[in-house]
Amino acid sequence: MGGTGDEVMSYDIVYKRYSMEEKRALLMDMAIELDRDYGLAVGVGEFADMCMVVLYCESNLEPTTVSRDGTQFGINQLTVGTINHLGIPMGVENYDFSGQLRFFKKFLVATGRISDIRSTIDLHVLNFAPSVSFSRDSICGIGGNGLSALDMNRNLYIDREDFIIFQRKRCMGNKFIRVLLYRDWE
Question: What span, in angstroms and rounded, lies between the C-alpha atoms of 13 and 99?
């Protein structure tokens, strides 16, 4: 196993633009570290590709992304509660892609489920609801909590099928990401 989780993290706000290829290379580096320290269920390249797909779905891989309602920030759309829980500095959207990958990695490590991720859907469910079992079909009801836009199959629940539909729709417009998505489904 890797670090103890007691490390003090310091972040400098530096902003650099990265190409898709550079973002994938940074994700490969992160996947190599995660595999070494925690063990991945898939190869490091496949894991990096899965991260590209999910982060594209969440934010277009753009660090400055803030949700419409202003409650989620950055490449994996961290909530204020998660930011505070993990000790990540506020203003996530002011960090570049590389800086935010440190936060994403910290999030993944904190879930304790890195070695269970086997697909883009698993990773997307983990990012959306870290405590929900990957095998569970229904993740949550939409109720009055503003989640109706995520109910892609209109069954009044957020479920794995919603993530499948969302990923397919979201990734069709980007050839680079579309190739990675369909590679995961083969």
Answer: 8
Whats the size of the chain, residue-wise? 186
Closest CA to 33 of 48, 52, 15: 48
Rounded Cα gap, residues 62 and 159, in angstroms: 25
**Cα–Cα distance, 120 to 124 (Å, whole number):** 6
Max CA separation in the chain (angstroms): 44
* Whole-structure pTM value: 0.88
**Spatial contact of 101 and 30, defined as CB atoms under 8 Å apart:** yes
Give the tokens for residue 176. Answer: 């680079």
Measured between alpha carbons, how far is 83 from 123 in angstroms, rounded to an integer? 19
Residue carrying the six token digits 């973002």:
23
pLDDT of residue 180: 86
Is the pLDDT at 10 greater than 70? The verdict is no
Give the residue among 12, 186, 19, 9 at the shortest CA–CA distance from 105: 9
* 139-148 confidence digits (pLDDT tens): 988 876 778 8
Ranges assigned E (strand) in the chain: 72-73, 78-79, 138-141, 157-159
* Kind of pairing between the strands at 78-79 and 138-141: unpaired
Three-class SS state of 79 = strand
Strands (E), 16-71: none
